[in-house]
Amino acid sequence: MIPEHFGYSAPSSISEALSLLKEHGEDAKILAGGHSLLPMMKLRFASPSHLVDINNIPGLSYIKEEDGRLKIGAMTREVDLEESDVISTRYPIFTDASKLIADPQVRNFGTVGGNIAHGDAANDHPAVMIALRAEVEIAGENGSRTVPIDDFFYGFYMTAVQQGEILTEISIPSLGERAGSAYHKAERKVGDYATAGVAVVIEVDAEGSCTKAGIGLTNVNPTPMRAARSEEVLVGSKLTSEDIEKAAEYAAADCSPSPDLRGDEEYKRHLVNVITKRMINKAIQRAS
Amino acid sequence: MIKCKTSREIGGMGHSIKRKEDDRFIQGKGNYVDDVKLPGMLYMDIVRSPYAYAKIKNIDASKALEIEGVVAVVTGKDLEQYNLHWMPTLMSDTQMVLPTDTVMYQAQEVAAVIATSRYLARDGKEAVRVEYEPMSPLMDPYKALDDDAPLLRPDKEGKTDNHIWHWEAGDKEKTDSVFEAADVVVKEQMHIPRIHVASIETCGCVASYDKVENHLTMYMTTQAPHAIRTVIALVAGHVGLTEEKIRVISPDIGGGFGGKVPVYPGYVIAIAVSFLTGAPIKWIEDRSENLQADSFARDYHITAEMAGTKEGKILATRFKVLADHGYTDASANPSKFPTGLFSIGTGSYDYNASFMEADAVYTNKPPGGVAYRCSFRVTEAVHAIERITDTFAREVGIDPADLRMQNFIKKEDFPWQSPTGWEYDSGDYHAGLELAMKTVDYHALRKEQAEKRAQGKFMGIGISTFTEIVGAGPSKDFDILGIKMFDSAEIRVHPTGKAIARFGTKSQGQGHETTYAQIVAEELGIPAEHIQIEEGDTDTAPYGLGTYASRSTPTAGAAAAMAARKLRKKAKKIAAYLMEVSEDDLEWEPGKFFVKGAPEKSKTIQEIVFAAYTNHPQGMEAGFEATHYYDPPNLTFPSGAYICIVDIDEETCDIKIRRFVAIDDCGNIINPMIVQGQVHGGLTQGLAPAMYEELIYDESGNILNGTLMDYLVPTAVESPSWETGHTVTPSPHHPIGAKGVGESPTVGAPPAIANAIVDAVAHLGISHLEIPITPFKLFKELKKVGYFK
């Protein structure tokens, strides 16, 4: 790693971190797990003049259910999600996703907050958070604000987190007893970004009708994307195979993948279709 | 299965003793080039071209030189003053060290920045401003000979096109007439993709020139230190660096695979700068530079044809190759073999007509053509024969296993003369395939496949039964730049019976420190743990051509046995003297000579060695040392029978290897555990081009996957649990009957995997898929045949 020269601070509180960000202005970058930022610095695609390392700030790493919500601290490592009982029993979508993120070395250090705050549609958590209808807690000079996930992703590497702000928590409405969730991505090899990925959350009532549906798509759109038409098809339906087919078709039609070495537009839409179908079925299975 | 002649304590051949070198490797105590730190050392980074083909209008280094700590910026014009701007390749072509006017591929070296730290060198590199005038590059080798193709090498006198060489083997007339008369002729067009060895350690060096002594010490990542020293002397002799003034040290190497045979421009620049400044210069590539600029492997476009009878008898093969060499031929083949040992491509089958030809062309790609874990283009040849054999089997409607069994050269027909001129030393191809088929229960698999197919599922079974050709080579045919391809061993046993042995080869992970010790232990009975192995220092090791092409065991391993046998003869004389008996009365068992009929009367090898220093017979030279330069009488011909079983997701086209069974025959085995490790690594490097790796360029000459994010090196996750096994057919001409194994799996695996994948979808009308076979590629092919709408 031969980056350009940069300054470095390791504050021990949010307020200290916020004042450092203010002091160093727009060339400062927050260093969390570093697994998106450091590769960019290594290739000199990013050359921040100052890094504010938030790894020493206590109280930013947790997974807890509280006030009807699942709360995940921004500095929670992927490995913590992988190993959490609450997650594996009630929110298996995270276990699915974590196991597919990069490799164990990255997951030991990479953080959930960083995965989202990087604003990359190729990352896996954005789609998962969209499916779960998460809210993001952002701390700034004037206190904290909450942003719904649908208002979070602005564009390529751009999110609601503004200069001088820090993402501190992601919270999710707790899933009910009859909810199921699942995530899968097609990847060329371990550690690769998704060729296409689909996150699905389904809730059904006692009669088997769908009461809630959340579908998020990875790396098939300029920004992380909600498959809204697909969700609409499912909510209120009996989740017949026709309904599921329709939802999958809409997801494939509504996304906007770009061709690259992973596949052309057609193959990626094809994968979105197949994986959406499979994840809906898996979520339904997990719901019962 | 393997019978050992020596005890576990001696640890000769056949014992799975633990690798001696691993003590330091697993503790992070290896000593690699980047660990070399010398006083006053400066660091080099290299400015590289963003264009594949461009004129250099101007190089402005002023901004770089303003950075405190940047010492110098070196360009082609600077080297030109010393006539060091070009250098010869191992194939007697020429390659730029630094360009004076034109760049020929993206990532080519353009200028070197020297600074007091690695970071400042990189900062300096970013600050050098180069003005280019881009030209339209020649990327498609099939267009290289078109009339309107740019002439890429006007520097070569008399050159009017981009053709490098033409090569032929076999009998054209005879082969053509067999093809004309044959019932069945099949043909496939295939590309063996341009790939990269991508060793974990990149290339680098520390060039340290001592102005007072006029002496250069060159620490570098090289698989062939002696040859490199000679090359440096040939290139730099005119500035006073003659061979005795050059010491090349190749410390621990983190993977070579052929990629560390060539001389890269970075080495030469570092030497030149050290020579001019008197400061040691360290140059260590980063990963992207390694992938984008260092020698590629493969890149053969092959038209393969097979002729045979309706009953499935193979009668003839015809291969036509177009070799894309990039802008210079920087292969590392023996001089007489521009296309390496491609003519092994007649395969493991008994027929007598074959004709092969190859043409090499220049393009605007990086140079190379290295033997990537493959004895000089054998991977390309084996892929062609094993794929076309499957196509032929399908055409005549015979199971590919049956067809192979029917056509194999029989065990009793060895030594066997191939139609392209090789004498196969030994083999038992039927036994290998039988064992592989039994291991997987082949017939049950075929049944399962039929059932799966009826349910619309894709399952495929692929076979590859290859013959390798390694151990280059006999001096009558094999040389590199005129130096014959023998190799050497020197054994020195100390008075207390412990030994040091030195070799002209250089391990890059093969485990020489263990296996060479085992060969000496086998022959002398000195425990392997008491035999120290050294390689890689040209001041101490005997001359040899290095380690690549599975040649170490066939050449230096043989030299070790021969040198040890010289010592055993001497030991016998000393033993006879010590026990006051005739040599004829003595018999050897590992570790001692004893008197026939009186086994209690004996002398151990340790006692004998001690006497060689303390009480040697009058008239005999004291000491206990021997050297041998082994010139092999023939190459060795390892073989293998591989079976791969794949399951393919019929919707996503995701390909999973369910099982992979590799039965290798590498003759006698020195260390089964090391062989198994070699096979596992080699199979993974065979899986790589079959399903993952290929260097991809766009029309403008940009590399599209120049980092490990996109150049997909398979990991343990992608690899199946490899299942290995052996048949043992010793080489009749090798002193210990060994054949070499490092490359067999890399050579044999790609067609087994490709054959399995094709087999899974052949019923839909697909007869061939180009490697690497990715899910996306398979999707497109299935769409072409109407499977996907």
What's this model, at a glance?
By secondary structure, chain A is of the alpha+beta class. In chain A, 35% of the residues lie in helices and 25% in strands.
Task: Describe, in plain words, how this protein is organized in 3D.
The complex is a heterodimer of chains A (288) and B (789). By secondary structure, chain A is an alpha+beta fold. Chain A folds into 3 domains: 7-53, Uridine Diphospho-n-acetylenolpyruvylglucosamine Reductase, domain 2 (2-Layer Sandwich); 63-173, Uridine Diphospho-n-acetylenolpyruvylglucosamine Reductase, domain 3 (2-Layer Sandwich), CATH 3.30.465; 179-287, 2-Layer Sandwich (Enolase-like, domain 1). Chain A has 11 helices and 14 strands. In chain A, strands 4-5-10-6-7 form a 5-stranded antiparallel β-sheet. In chain A, strands 11-12-13-14 form a 4-stranded antiparallel β-sheet, sandwiched between helices. In chain A, strands 1-3-2 form a 3-stranded parallel β-sheet, with helices on one face. The longest helix of chain A is centred in the last third of the chain and has 23 residues, at 265-287. The mean pLDDT of chain A is 96. Chain B folds into 3 domains: 22-30 and 487-630, Aldehyde oxidase/xanthine dehydrogenase, molybdopterin binding domain (Aldehyde Oxidoreductase, domain 4); 33-135 and 203-284, Aldehyde oxidase/xanthine dehydrogenase, a/b hammerhead (Aldehyde Oxidoreductase, domain 3, Alpha-Beta Complex); 296-472 and 634-784, Aldehyde Oxidoreductase, domain 4 (2-Layer Sandwich). Helices cover 28% and strands 25% of the residues of chain B. In chain B, helix 13 (512-524) runs parallel beside helix 14 and helix 14 (552-579) packs across helix 15. The two termini of chain B are 53 Å apart. The mean pLDDT of chain B is 96. Classes of the chains: A alpha+beta (288), B alpha+beta (789). Chain A binds chain B through residues 2, 4-5, 43-44, 103, 186, 188-192, 195, 261-264, 267, 270-271, 274-275, and chain B through 118-119, 122-123, 126, 286, 288, 651-652, 654, 692, 696, 704-705, 707, 709-710, 712, 714-715, 717-718, 774-776, 779-780, 788.
